[in-house]
Amino acid sequence: MVACWDALGVLGALTAAWLMLRAVWSAGRAVYVFLLPSVRRGAPWLRAHGAWAVVTGATDGIGKAYAHELARRGLNIVLISRNLSKLEREAKEIERLHGTLTRIIQVDFTGGLEIYGAVEEGLKGLEIGVLVNNVGMSVSVVLQKTFEVENPAKRLSDIVNCNMLSVVQMTRIILPQMVSRRRGIIINVSSVAENHPHPLLAAYAATKAFVRSFSLAVATEYSSEGVTVQTVSPFVVSTKMSGHPKTGLLVKTPEDWASEAVDTLGLSSHTSGCLSHAVQEGALDAAALPPTSFLS
User: Fold this and answer.
1) Which residues are catalytic?
2) Are 9 and 97 members of one domain?
């Protein structure tokens, strides 16, 4: 019996040491990625990958914030979304505020393969250094069982095409030119929902799990060819999809979040995007608790 308790004591000590090392590693990584301005790559490094950035879902929320942040750092912007009037307004606003060039492509990403010919045509002749695969949707604006939404066949097809097919096809279109120049950055916007199944948000969480898996695998495949692929998995950002919750310590504005997220490029291949969300992620990991349903 004494030997048994001794063995359990050793196991407990090893477990405690492992958890302590993990906490120290996480804290050190957070300091390196988010709190050391000296290690950030800077706008010249970003522009060296190519003159243009392409942002999907670029007229609202996180996509809009990425478009403005990348333009602020000197990149020309291709905005892709389905609403033509919003595209035209944002293009004019970016040119006015940041003095960079813009191009717009009107596309509804709930469509299938047939929509991507227009995208390829619209991108011809551009040296694209950054691709932001941001466009996304949820099946319903309220929490519902997966197959009890209105017209579930159409809604589920739409979310698969928008959240998953768009990432694959936009990467297919743009990655080859990055490989040929041996430089380029692909940012795939996922969500903390990728980490666990989420009843009542089953399809959304599953599509984000796909984005993470696909993104991390492609990052490994092409890192030796000069292409950086980053997965970004935020917690709650105050956007239309999340219901515009009040911002504060835990909830970020899209603009503040995107500014911090762009600073992590070249430092982290998988990030929550900002220090606040990294702390939340670390707290949930330490507690071994799945997050509640989050839309970003």
Assistant:
1) 204
2) no
Structure tokens at 190: 């996922």
DSSP per-residue string spanning 49-118: T-SEEEEESTTSHHHHHHHHHHHHTT-EEEEEES-HHHHHHHHHHHHHHH---EEEEE--TTS-GGGHHH
As a whole number of angstroms, the distance between CA 168 and CA 109 comes to: 12
Q: Which of 167, 132, 163, 89 is nearest to 254 (CA)?
A: 132
pLDDT digits (tens, 9 = 90+) for 33-62: 888 888 899 999 999 999 999 999 999 999
The tally of domains found in the chain comes to 2
Residue 30's domain spans which residues?
1-39
Distance from the Cα of residue 187 to its chain's centroid: 6
Pair of tokens at residue 161 = 């095409």
268 and 167 inside one domain: yes
Query: End-to-end distance of the chain based on CA atoms, in angstroms?
Result: 52
If asked whether residues 150 and 48 sit together in one domain, one would say yes
CA distance 160 to 166: 9
Contact 81, 87 (CB under 8 A): yes
Q: pLDDT tens digits for 168-209?
A: 999 999 999 999 999 999 999 999 999 888 899 999 999 999
User: 22 and 104 share a domain?
Assistant: no
**Residue 130 dihedral angles phi and psi, to the nearest 5°:** -135, 130
Single pTM value for the model: 0.90
Query: Are residues 118 and 16 part of one domain?
Result: no
Please, what's the b/e burial string for 264-283 (b: 16 or more CB within 10 A of its CB; e: otherwise)? bbbbbbbbbbbbbbbbbbbe
